[in-house]
Amino acid sequence: MLLITCPVCHAQGDETDFHCGGQAHIARPATTNPEGITDEQQSNYLFTRINPKGLQFERWRCDRGCGKWFNAARDTMTMEFKAFYGATELPPADVMKQAKGAWADYFKSRMKTSK
Amino acid sequence: MLKPRYSIFSLARNAISYHKDWERAWRSPQPKTEYDAVIVGAGGHGLATAYYLAKNHKMTNIAVVEKGWLGGGNTGRNTTIIRSNYLQDSSMAIYELARSLYEGLSQELNYNMMFSPRGVMMLCQTQHELRAFQRTAHANRLAGLDCRMITSAEVKEIVPIINDDANCRYPILGAFWQPRGGTGRHDAVAWGYARGADALGVDIIQNCEVTGIQRDGDHVVGLETSRGVIKTKKIGVVTAGNVSTVMDMAGVRMPIESQCLQALVSEPIKPVLGCVVMANTVHGYISQSDKGELVIGGGTDGYNNYSQRGSFPALEHTVTALVETFPIISRLRMLRQWGGIVDMTGDRSPIIGKTPVEGLYVNCGWGTGGFKAIPGSGFVFADTLANDRPHPIAEPFSLNRFSEGRLIDESVSAAVAH
Questions:
Q1: Which of A10, A51, B15, B269 is the most buried (most CB within 10 A)?
Q2: What is the pLDDT of residue B229?
Q3: What's the pTM value of the predicted model, to 2 decimals?
């Protein structure tokens, strides 16, 4: 049973009070460049997922609380939540540093720009 | 390497020696330094691929590497349902190939798969579901599959323990019936293919985890494993829930999400259920094993998971639905519960074929319903791997269908259960 705290309204509950919306931090390429995107980019946006064995960053919705979407960092092996943070925010710096593989690549450039 | 045949005579002969002298069903060889092809993952799909590579394509210098024990993943964790009544033509083709191969598999492999075509019944509990299954039934009949709609009275006749109250929340309005579907003995499918492949010279190497895929430019040259480097020019990745992890080693990112799917069995009881019943609206399916246990499955957890331990709410949801549909089971005790990591694609159809890396092939994405497809999947994947081009039945399931927009959408037609 996953125990979750909403970072928006601070409601606490188990996984039946929330809803997982899959991988977080996916930007829709067509939003910024509707003319220029390739089939490959659109396919990656729609279907390709990091699906890590370990630390995952994903979206959740506070179904029975405030109804807002937020992000969470969770380990897919141990089910442990490392952080809950806002939908438009980056994870806490110490959690970003723990990311591996594709997630580490993703946060690498963003950690620099956020400084 | 001809193995002694299993028969009534070999049983009698071994009874004389108190069954102490049975030959091993397969060897445990040391990995060689090089193979013509290596299959990663010794589940049903991987072993079937190896068997058909050796048998149909005469590729016998091949190996199957497995990080755990053979058949210890989803092949040994499913609810053993075999059916082919899918909506899309390409799905029907591959699942029906698999189902029809199951019919003769025990004889072919000289290993009892206990294929039991006891019938698969998919309940219609809303008007929407009734119409959707009528559509599938018509599609199946056009494709020559032996499936039909049955009335609620026929449902009650076939499954007397079902709740036929017309005023319940989800009344039985009818069902979609595939009489040639049924169940099989899941472990025996893995063991039979393993024994068959081993007899043809395939090396099955257990406790051998792949830790890296070696590439030279855009083609593969070998595998790094926990038991050393194995050189090969052809790699078939058949690792279900772990496919993203293995493909990542070759730099290929997959349209896959790994989730946990659970199943459970009850204490054994007298025969009460002669067929497989799937209740897709309420998320549950049930059959009775030959031992008398009720085998129960439901939907996946709603989030990524690699732990092979599912969540309690998912289990509760499944059991609640089935108690409502079969009130008689409400006081049964459950013996065991387990989870397997399934590889879900966006359209709930598998991915079979070549990848952007030369010599790297993938067979994955079977999601919640891979067991039924094992023989067909191995058959077409072996052909694809041996000839370096997709088998006609595998062709629609290629990896690039996601960027070409050729989705084979079974997520809507099959609802929750596969």
A1: A51
A2: 97
A3: 0.95
